[in-house]
Amino acid sequence: MALKVLSALDTAKTQYYHFKAIIVAGMGLFTDAYDLFCISPIMRLIGRIYYKDHKYEVAVALLGTAIGQIVFGYLGDRVGRRRVYGISLTLMVLSSLGCGFSICTSRGCVLGSLGFFRFLLGLGIGGDYPLSATIMSEFANKATRGAFIAAVFSMQGFGILASSVVTMAICGALDGVSKARPEDETPIAADIAWRVLLMLGAVPAAATFYWRMMMPETARYTALVEHNVLRAAMDMEKVLDVSLRQIEEEHPLPPATPPPTYPLLSGEFFHRHGRDLLSCASTWFLLDVVFYSSNLFQSHIYSHFIPDKSHVNAFKDAFDIAKLQAVVAACSTIPGYWATVYFIDRVGRVKIQIMGFLFMAAGFFAMGAPYYNHWDRHTDYGFMVLYGLTFFFANFGPNTTTFIVPAELFPARFRTTCNGLSGASGKLGALVGSVGFLWASHRKKENDFPKAIGMTASLMILGGICIVGAAITYLFTTETTARSLEENEKDDGFERDPLEAVALQEP
């Protein structure tokens, strides 16, 4: 009966519940993006209130995300996807509210309180990554699985756009009632604005809490991990357009080989899945080093397209940052996500990931090589176009596929754990890109170590990282398109060539 349940999942026609699952799971990614990307204009507001012209970066949410991916990924395999899903969502809601409810008004206290709640928020966000990807992969049919998981991830683009629009709305409204103040003064209302912005991040997550709790456990987890095939069939009957009779076997046969019992991260695990885990973790790490180094571009774009912040008040400053983010999200980020949704099951994961890395590399080289001879001296839109294209191919490429592939490659009892380990590797790359790499590239004193490596060298290095990512993808990443999750597991007691596995499944 278990085989028939899994077969029914793989061949189920696309129906209402699939789209409902995309919205429910995707709203977590929407909230993730809102909370992570609203921080740039918020930091402008906080900087104006407490730090004047001092520039600083906040990476504590990324650290929390990395830890959350590992912890909640592990729990997702031990406790169940559905239960842990609710815990991560609750943590996101409460920590978003906590960020805004800080009663601190002194410089050190504000950053300490905000850092604490941003860390908790990162834990919840981290948990949402492996659970959302895995839940969608285990509900989807194999023909459109990639598009469904990509659609869940694409909600990030709308979250980025929403954070920008909400920031512009709040800053525009408050600036409108503060026009009597001098232009270079920071309005008192700015201290309220950043708190409201952070608290609003709880709204989309809270709005889907009921529907997330009403989702049944995935049939694959129930059948393959809990070994309760009847419950899996009954849960499928509730949400999908299949009847119990369609998935019931009169004389179920015992499995040809006993279920494997090797533990996580054992020698047997690495023999079967070590290459896949290395590929997923390393490509996600390299992608996030590049993706989170975007401040390298933003510093150039801000200096050319946004007025000097010393001549505008805090609301204008944050408004301009949010407007730029909205333009990039609408013209580059969201189209990139949906290009992946359309092509992922037609072209394949590996080809899209390689293509994305290579086009990103081309964009970095085009920005880096002539930077000091051209881009640094001219205020034009060429750099902005290259910046947008680079982010388009990041999302129509490895930023989406690195989220999809780990949810398809590993056995059900290790799936969220391995997805979490891969994602945590990515967040370590994000810390390298957003903190370490930027710090090294902006050193100014000659006796500083390391010395400034400059914009040209920085962009060329990022291009080189993309080339390495493409090479690792080509050499080590397994294609999962049009294959059932069980075909990818390599858990049937012996190794099998992927093409042979597919052929054996054909009638």
TrEMBL record:
The keyword Protein transport does not apply. PROSITE patterns: MFS, SUGAR_TRANSPORT_2. It comes from the Eukaryota. One of its GO terms (biological process) is phosphate ion transport. Its main location: membrane. The chain crosses the membrane at residues 21-46, 58-77, 84-103, 115-135, 147-172, 192-211, 354-372, 384-405, 417-440, 452-476. Gene3D superfamilies: MFS general substrate transporter like domains (1.20.1250.20). Residues 486-507 are annotated as: Disordered. The keyword Repressor does not apply. GO terms for cellular component: membrane. Keywords: Membrane, Phosphate transport, Symport, Transmembrane, Transmembrane helix, Transport. It is a multi-pass membrane protein. Residues 486-499 have a biased composition (Basic and acidic residues). GO terms for molecular function: symporter activity. Residues 21-481 form the Major facilitator superfamily (MFS) profile domain. It is found in: Membrane. Belongs to the major facilitator superfamily. Phosphate:H(+) symporter (TC 2.A.1.9) family. This is Major facilitator superfamily (MFS) profile domain-containing protein.
